[in-house]
Amino acid sequence: MHGVLQLEDPDLRGVLAGLDRTDLVVFAGPSLVGSPLAELGGHLILPPVRDGDLTALTELPEPPATVLMIDGYFGAGQAVNLTEIQATLRQGIRLYGCSSMGALRAVEARPWGMIGLGAIFLDYLTGARTSDENVVLMHDDEYRALTVPMVNVDALCALLASCGVDPDRCRAYRRRVGGLYFGDRSFSALRALAKEFLNAGEEESELALALHYLAPERHAAWDAKRRDAETSFCDIVLGRAPLTVPSGLVPVPENVGALLAEE
Questions:
Q1: Dihedral over alpha carbons 173, 223, 129, 106 (to 10 degrees)
Q2: 28 with 45: CB under 8 angstroms?
Q3: 105, 89 in Cβ contact below 8 A?
Q4: Rg of the chain's alpha carbons, rounded to an integer?
Q5: Cβ(123)–Cβ(140) under 8 Å?
Q6: What average pLDDT does this structure show over 244-260?
Q7: What is the pTM assigned to this prediction?
Q8: Which residues pair with 172 in a beta bridge?
Q9: Contact in structure between 245 and 110 (CB atoms under 8 Å)
Q10: Which parts of the chain fold into alpha helices (H)?
Q11: Nearest to 195 by CA among 215, 209, 182
Q12: Per-residue pLDDT averaged across 219-245, rounded?
């Protein structure tokens, strides 16, 4: 999880430079903050998607051929709706989703042709995750994350376990963090709870390891949303993403309508 190999692909910079917003538009915010793609592909990136944004794209004189939905606003009157997605797909625009709002909507709109990418999308598609609370977060005006979504907490716990932290303590830590309201799941709260649940009795302690990875400069090592966003963006740009909904994926789960919490 320490980076995406495709970011080092020698063709990536040149291909990105040759694209404009008639080729590809990306709706992204927190998931690409700090990523090299935010600079390399910045000319293709719009803010997180809101209700009405896809319609605005379809009404342009030259609509984009492809749209990647990564981040989006949640809440009544803000979240991009399925009717808008259907209309975009009917116009012939290829629509991908991953990481956050994009992953949720890609599951819901898969029957109409929206293409989901990444591990988070697959978790929702298979029913391993069933709530938007797994990906929702709070951010500042520059889209820097102020809280930690559960997909990233899970990635942090998996990383700590792979480094030798006791699995039982990892699970207890994860349960306690998961019990917080999403708006209270700040980085400082994760550090405070690490001090409560992880062993600090040795020089190379579990706590020291957790605090190492909870330092701001190391957040990317366990940012599952950024990993999916980078991989999906690169796959599309380099022509590696599927062009249609893969037929081999499992069907949409029956509870798909509950992915986005009622407001």
A1: 170
A2: yes
A3: no
A4: 19
A5: no
A6: 62
A7: 0.90
A8: none
A9: yes
A10: 12-17, 36-40, 53-58, 82-90, 101-108, 119-126, 150-162, 167-178, 187-197, 206-214, 224-237
A11: 209
A12: 95
In a 13 Å sphere around the CA of 27, the CA atoms on its Cβ side amount to 28
- DSSP helix/strand/coil, 186: strand
165 burial level (CB within 10 Å; 0-12, 13-18, 19+): buried
Q: Which residue has the tokens 């951010």?
A: 139
Q: Please give the Cα distance from 48 to 68 (Å, whole number).
A: 11
Confidence at 262, pLDDT banded by 50, 70, 90: very low
Of the candidates 78, 98, 79, 96, the one whose C-alpha atom is nearest the C-alpha of residue 88 is 96
Q: What is the dihedral of CA 214, 217, 223, 227, to 10 degrees?
A: -160
For 101, counting Cβ atoms within 10 Å of its Cβ (0-12 exposed, 13-18 middle, 19+ buried), the class is buried
Name the β-bridge partners of 36. none
| Residues 6+ positions from 232 with CB-CB distance below 8 Å | 68, 70, 96, 98, 99, 117, 118, 241
Helices then strands, counting H and E runs in the chain, come out as: 11, 5
Contacts of residue 120, Cβ cutoff 8 Å, sequence gap at least 6: 98, 99, 100, 103, 129, 134, 135, 151, 224, 225, 228
Residue 2 reports pLDDT greater than 60: no
Burial (CB count within 10 angstroms: exposed 0-12, middle 13-18, buried 19+), residue 138: middle
Sign of CA dihedral 21, 23, 97, 42: negative
Q: What's the residue count for the chain? A: 263
Residues 6+ apart with CB under 8 A from 262: none
Instruction: For residue 216, give the DSSP letter.
Output: G
